[in-house]
Every structure is written in C-alpha cells, then in structure tokens.
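User:
Note these tokens:
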Amino acid sequence: MNSSRLWVIVPAAGRGVRFSDRIAKQFCRLSGASVAQHCLTRLLKLPSIERLIIPCNPSDPGWSDVDACKEPHVELIKGGDNRANSVLNGLKTLSFVADDMDWILVHDIVRPCVTIGSIIKLIESVREHSVGGILSTVVTDTVKMVSSDGIVLRTENRDCLRLAQTPQIFRFGELHSALIAASEHSFSPPDEASALEWFGRPVLFTDGRSDNIKITHPEDLALAEAIINSQERLECG
C-alpha cells in the first residue's frame, strides 16, 4: 500500500453470552480447528502485515490451542470492556511504532469465512483515500421499520442500505482520533466505521461476499463449517 504500512487488530475480548455461557465462541471447533484459528490463519496470509494485535483475555486457556498465536508477529494484549475500548488498547500498543497515515485493519475474530480476495479488494479500494472504508453487502430482504409495540411503521428503501462487515480499514490517525473523541463523549460505537461517521469523516464501502458471516448463534457454526468446506473444495478444484 505504497509507503503506508499495514497493521491488524482483531478484538476478541467478548465471550458472546448470547452464544454460550460455557465457552467463548472464538474457541468453538469447526472443520478441525477453532474459530479463532481459522480466522487468524486467513489474516496471516495477507502480504506485508507488520504486526497482528489481539485485544482479549490473554490468560484464557483457549488461546493455548490457537497455533496462529505462536507466530512471531502476533501479540495478545489485554482487551477492553467493549469493542471500541479493545480497539483503542490495540491502537495504544501500536502508537509507538505506527504512523498516522499507516493503515489499521480491524476484523472480527468470529468471522472465520472471510476470503483473502475480499480483503485485498478492500485494501485496493481505499489505497488513495485519506480515511478508509469497510466491506459491506447489499440488503436482499424487504426491510421494515417497526415500533416497540410490534407495529410496522414503513418499508425502507433497501437500495440505499448496506450490511456492514469486517474487515474495516482506516488510517491510524483518523481512527485513533475518532475513538478517543467518542470515548470522551461516552459514545460506544458498534464498529469502527460508526466512530468515523460520528466524527464527521467520509467512509467508503466496498462490496463484500455474503458468505463472510459473523458467528452469533450456535446454529451459525454449522453454516460456517459448510462455507469453509465449500471454499476449500473450490480452492482445490
């Protein structure tokens, strides 16, 4: 990416209580390895990563079974009490080595099906941009705005709607400033793009793939395994 370097942050401090109260979903197994192992293995195939930071609970024994964490440029650090604070902790760790115009790529640990092609497409799309952008997909279902008491209020124009995914990639300086400002105003953005939007900065979107699913519910594991197996068959075919 020209002279700008690429750093990766993979927030993984959450345990996903909606998923299970026994095991963090990143340590669940699919296709012979943990969700975390699948995710990190794919990210580590990217060329020219300077360092990959994982804000998490480093003492969780689940990490001992994630072989990708043993790579020399992968580092486990203490995560925050929410996603934004975890990413901020990652940025703080990198602040001694990263420049303002370097790229920070943030990816969900529980999106193990992302393809390298999609990530490279995202990187290429923002190469000359001053802020950065996200992967997203089109909305194919009809979208209804509803009230709290279960009444449909209106139908939204889905042509103007996108489902946000990760990775999301932003300049170090822009992302750091936006997350600091959000924290100072007690705003906890659900993703990095939300922080930049709130900060008044333009965020690009690039079309991603519908199989880049986020594991949220137990039944998502079976779907993720089917996707991974299908992707591997296509690669071998």
Notes: Residues 6-236 form a domain with the Spore Coat Polysaccharide Biosynthesis Protein SpsA; Chain A fold (CATH 3.90.550.10).
